[in-house]
């Protein structure tokens, strides 16, 4: 008698498995290359302003154009990944953004530089738009929070390197070489990402359309998570944009080189994001998310008195709270959406980057009219809105049911 061969269903990556280690390393490298590229011009805005003879406000477009392009592209790119696959879209996106980044040092006019940064932002969107959906599909649910936290840690450290590496190199060789070195590092991390990323085993192609987006927006839990994304990123960008002005002015009068080092705080935030993901798996997402938002608010309050050690400690606590909240909320999106996860994650990222642009601009109005106290109370209001959204999260629901209803 001949026994029919058994079809073994592959298991999702679990803690301690070689597959999860490769996933963690690959997505960590993806976070590094994406956010190095996204923020590589931020530390060089004064040099770029002088080099091209443009105002500081116009020079800042080199950051906002890239982040704005990411916000516009994440939803259509995520829809493409539902049809063509997660790994394929991430690989093409990371390769395109790394190659476009190598064109930045050879731009001869500000208009060329702005155009290249916009194209780079569009190319960059593929990795953040799809990474969360890939993790939700390939990693065991009991360990998803930890994996998501490690990816967010990579994005945080990438943001630090994107500010520190150009800032250091430009003192020795100028801004063109600074951006060239950053581009080459981003390319190296991209190659590591390609080599390490395991193929998708649970992805199933689906029809691309707008109905899944409507289904996700109809889920009250996902809407609340999108509000958390908008508010926490608006507050984070506001603090890091305008605390610099406060530290350069009275009563601190810190030199620019010292003020630029505040980006190092993101390292602590990256470590906190990985830990927060693990805590969310063990203790519950709602509890950890609310605790992270309260921690960020406590840190912000510490920055209000004009005492430098308190400001430094407050910024550290605030940063840890922000990264922890982002890690938990982004992981919760992939966990809650049972289908069209890439589009669910893309809506989260769209809200996240809209918070950066819209909320950050509103933070500038608060700073101009109320100085740092006004800015602090503005950010506290944002955190309060995020906390209310987190506290009201409903119980589990399968978004796939909503998708099915809309398709019928």
TrEMBL record:
The keyword Transport applies. It is a multi-pass membrane protein. The chain crosses the membrane at residues 23-45, 57-77, 89-113, 175-197, 225-245, 257-276, 288-304, 310-334, 346-365, 377-398. Residues 19-399 form the Major facilitator superfamily (MFS) profile domain. InterPro entries: MFS (IPR011701), MFS_dom (IPR020846), MFS_trans_sf (IPR036259). It is found in: Cell membrane. The keyword Transport applies. Keywords: Cell membrane, Membrane, Transmembrane, Transmembrane helix, Transport. Its main location: membrane. Belongs to the major facilitator superfamily. PANTHER family: BLL2771 PROTEIN (PTHR43271), INNER MEMBRANE TRANSPORT PROTEIN YNFM (PTHR43271:SF1). This is MFS transporter. The lineage of its organism: Bacteria, Bacillati, Actinomycetota, Actinomycetes, Streptosporangiales.
